[in-house]
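Researcher: I'd like a candidate sequence for this fold, 401 residues long. If you have to choose between options at a position, lean toward the conservative one.
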């Protein structure tokens, strides 16, 4: 099948899987996550006081649901990773090159951000600012000494979500946001295995993995054992697989029947999510359908000036994702101590201000740290750095672009 696709592609010209709007979507998704974490300044009790204002309730509800930016990331990641796999395979590259690029792109910036977390919390602890650990009006940040060495191993290696299934105590994600990276690493490793074991049958192999994980997840749900999958890839693979399906639908599928099969599959998953009340599944499936529907307008949308701030954030979203949380926590607590205690002060001043500052600090992290890991060392020596405003779709990786 894959050999036939390669022959057809060669006949009709080079494949260009670039989807310009993905940068803007990444920016929107990462800003949703930032506002969600800044929104810890608001409580459901705020919506039930003062006569139970409907407006207050909707504000708290929307900020809380901004956590759905993460499923958007998983879908984008699936699209971009399959673009990378496809490009590498067509060029005859090694699966180990794929794995090495993912390691270089993800781990060094993450380790630097982890050190930033540890240093910031340690300094504030030394200054007696223990309110960081209480979680009131902000996400709680633990002291570094709270984690024992097995948990630190899990956090450093991004295996902490599934490590307890193998050995050691219950999980503890120190940075609060690295749990999604732990899932991403599992997704990427499966793609590496597919490249390693079945390089000429990539699409059937990924379809088989998707079908197997769907059956496993359905069985676990039916028997009430879904909680046993906590932290392991079958729990969220379907969100990543939606991105795989969108890539296949837009860049590989050759017949109307194949394209309609993908459309119907995503629609069926959307309905399953609605019936089972799984907001993340509904969001991911709906987003996949939206990406398919918007593709014909991709070039025109790329020229829209009002999307430029979102595209700029999207190209730096990994740094924003890694760095924003401690800035948001310290900002929330600092402003609260300065007297911004009322609901509207927290809503109209605290959340916008700390969100903007966290993005600005993350921008600095991108310039100082992440830019050094956009390409592996060997690639950087052979060719100039690609223009930042035109990233290759195959090299852009969901949270890591």
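Model: Candidate sequence:
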């Amino acid at each position: 099948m894959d050999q036939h696709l390669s022959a057809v592609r060669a006949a009709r010209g080079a494949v260009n899987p670039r989807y310009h709007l993905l940068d803007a979507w990444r920016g929107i998704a990462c800003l949703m996550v930032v506002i969600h974490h800044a929104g810890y300044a608001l409580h459901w009790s705020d919506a039930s006081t003062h006569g139970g204002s409907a407006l207050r309730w909707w504000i708290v509800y929307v900020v809380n649901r901004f956590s759905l930016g993460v499923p958007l990331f998983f879908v984008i990641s699936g699209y971009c990773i399959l673009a990378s796999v496809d490009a590498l395979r067509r060029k005859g590259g090694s699966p180990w090159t794929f794995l090495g690029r993912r390691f270089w792109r993800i781990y060094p910036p993450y380790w630097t951000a982890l050190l930033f977390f540890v240093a910031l919390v340690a300094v504030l602890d030394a200054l007696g600012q223990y309110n960081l650990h209480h979680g009131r009006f902000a996400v709680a940040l633990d002291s570094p000494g709270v984690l024992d060495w097995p948990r630190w191993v899990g956090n450093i290696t991004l295996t902490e979500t599934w490590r307890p299934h193998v050995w050691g105590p219950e999980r503890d994600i120190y940075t609060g946001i690295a749990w999604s990276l732990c899932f991403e690493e599992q997704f990427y490793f499966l793609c590496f295995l597919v490249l390693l074991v079945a390089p000429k049958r990539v699409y059937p192999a990924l379809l088989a993995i998707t079908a197997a994980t769907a059956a496993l997840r359905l069985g676990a749900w039916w028997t009430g054992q879904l909680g046993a999958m906590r932290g392991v890839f079958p729990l969220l693979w379907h969100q990543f697989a939606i991105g795989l399906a969108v890539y296949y639908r837009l860049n590989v599928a050759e017949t109307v029947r194949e394209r309609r099969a993908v459309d119907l599959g995503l629609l069926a998953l959307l309905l399953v999510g609605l019936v089972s009340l799984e907001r993340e599944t509904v969001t991911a499936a709906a987003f996949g359908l939206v990406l398919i529907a918007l593709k014909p307008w991709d070039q025109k949308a790329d020229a829209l000036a009002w999307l430029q701030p979102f595209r700029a954030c999207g190209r730096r979203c990994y740094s924003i994702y890694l760095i924003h949380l401690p800035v948001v926590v310290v900002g929330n607590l600092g402003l609260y101590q300065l007297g911004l205690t009322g609901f509207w002060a927290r809503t109209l001043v605290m959340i916008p201000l700390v969100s903007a500052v966290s993005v600005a600090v993350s921008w600095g992290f991108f310039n100082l740290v992440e830019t050094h890991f956009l390409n592996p060392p060997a690639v950087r020596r052979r060719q100039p750095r690609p223009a930042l405003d035109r990233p290759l779709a195959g090299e852009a990786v969901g949270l890591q672009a």
